[in-house]
Amino acid sequence: xxxxxxxxxxxxxxxxxxxxxxxxxxxxxxxxxxxxxxxxxxxxxxxxxxxxxxxxxxxxxxxxxxxxxxxxxxxxxxxxxxxxxxxxxxxxxxxxxxxxxxxxxxxxxxxxxxxxxxxxxxxxxxxxxxxxxxxxxxxxxxxxxxxxxxxxxxxxxxxxxxxxxxxxxxxxxxxxxxxxxxx
Length: 183
Description:
The protein is α/β, with parallel strands linked by helices. 40% of the residues lie in helices and 30% in strands. Strands 1, 2, 3, 4, 5 and 6 form a six-stranded mixed sheet that branches.
């Protein structure tokens, strides 16, 4: 049986063209999904006010409230076009956040062979109230909780600052997405 040499190049050209079309379509698809995920801040929202979080947790670092507040403010300053209003300003922000730190805990999470804990988990829980002053009725109150694990052989005081930075980042992303991205 003889192979028809005219068919093979045609099939390769067809497959190559389909491959290029498929890759182009996938690129447009993923680009549109990414921009949808990031969302767009509506043009009527131009200012944000983030009130200082209060700390109602029964234990933990005394600077938790300022660290969480600064992390949320920094997210808007560095990664959005919104203007941050000072808390002392008489003007309302187009969107406003108030928050309470409701929990700070350290628990063992993984048992080791000698009946000790191999990992410890630092967990921070916050309750956030959001108000969109440009759209009456667009408000919510929700609790967010995030954690970071560390080796139980480490002293919490030595790793707490970095763990809290990681937790703040995760919490801020959750809060920002809840407020400004339509899932």
